[in-house]
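User: Show me sequence and structure for the first protein, then do the same for the second.

Assistant: Starting with the first protein.
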Amino acid sequence: MADRITLRPTTAVIAHRGDSSAAPENTLAAARAAVAAGADAVEGDLHRTKDGALVVVHDRHLRRTTDVTTVRPEWGRARVADLTLAEVQQLDAGSWFGGAFKAQRVPTLREWATAIAGRAALLIEVKHPRRYPGIDLELGFELSQVPVLASAVARRALVIQCFDLAWLSGFRELVPHVRTGLLVRTTPTPAQIAMATRIVHQLNPSVDAADLATVRRLHDAGLGISVWTAN
């Protein structure tokens, strides 16, 4: 308990995929619910459609969180990357959670950020970025040209994270002013921490791989930490 009390003043509450206990994950409803609940930050997951739109959805397939297998069974095995934005947004991304959310769609990054509208920080995980060649350029463009995203970057209220350190290194070269985080599954080693300090702003381990000593080591190295996933 003493450790928890020590950490509490500087601990942020991050809504995982939005307030996914109150609304279907990664939808605008979940983002708005997270803000209404007072979350310090909202986390979302990023994929790219066939025609280059950046969309907020966790899985690369749409079977789990939309009605694709019912309304378009021919798309049942399709990935987000195989469909256009118009096709993806034909799908109902809310009814699986509850009938009140039938109108929810898979949002674009712009729509998702606009729903949060500066009322919370943004934590964006790029899912498997090497599957999307050029997504670093496209994301960098969005972060500089979309006002709600550019404002979050300027306020240091936006972090781009993923598990791929090499990709993050290249992304940092393109947009050095954007904060980044490396996701790891195990307790960070001294070598990982030393490498991370040269490339990213955060080192984000699984909650099971983090303890107070880990937090202190990262802070001493000048790194932030956002653990995943403590629902």
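Switching to the second protein now.
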Amino acid sequence: MSLKDDISNDMKAALKARDRVRLGSIRMLQAAIQRCEVDDRVMLDDAGVIAIVEKLIKQGRDAAGQFVKGNRQDLADKELADISVWKKYLPEQLGDDEVNAMIEAAIADTGAASMKDMGKVMGQLKARLQGRADMGQVSARIKARLAG
């Protein structure tokens, strides 16, 4: 069963359970998926859906941070609730040790020695870590490793 089918089934379950918070979050995700499919005229596979989920989570975190700065904790809580629903659709997240090991292996494979080689390392890691780790944090770790 595809990820889109899981999302659809979860929406039906939220409807039956009258869970408005979960239902709203899932509908927002489905709308983002449909918007992408219509705009790009493609049928998204699981990798495409994961990319959309990651994008929504990143936007939600940014929005929650702004709401907290603006003393709107109620809106920040709503964003965080949406994020907790969306995280279910991401693959199992890797631990710090696993990510660091993959970074070291990628640096060794590409022969990266300076910041100029960062693109090579990121290119190799992006496919393997997409959806399984926060790519912003991965990028920061690579920068720290190549700078030091």
